[in-house]
Amino acid sequence: MTPMNKKSRTAILAALAVALIGLAGCGKSDIHGYGDGRRDWGRHGTAGLVVAYARSYIGLPYRYGGSDPHQGFDCSGLIQHAYARFGVRIPRTARDQFRHGRPVSRRRLRPGDLVFFWSRRTKWHVGLYMGRGFFVHSPRTGAAIRVDSLNRRYYRRRFQGARRVVQGGPTYWRSSLR
Q: How remote is the C-alpha of 134 from its chain's centroid?
């Protein structure tokens, strides 16, 4: 057996560290049967860690204009706060977030992508894609942060597009265009 070189050992340790960090935020299972709560979010790099962090707020009440975990979040406040936790700056409002990052087709969505909806009543709405057709979001006054399916008729009919704000995998990531 040949000894492992320093570069290989460092890469393996870095991947393991990211995986463990990702698992730390995944103690909850969602009510929609998305998973068993043990998904390895770390394999998706920064975006996966952002998803795990946003999921930790499931159940926190919606608050109009909210951008603080102690007071509550509105939809764009949750997204901005989750990304800021990992050093990625994005605009505050859903409308401005829709102009940020790179457009992504619905078929090419990856965990961490922002998904956008529009209706006459609520105007712009944003959620954070988790994978397998699910997203986490802060829906409206009187509701709490939760997981929903992009395939629900309500969201399917109002889907406007998606944006990717970070690129990369577990051992390499970077913020995208500002």
A: 10
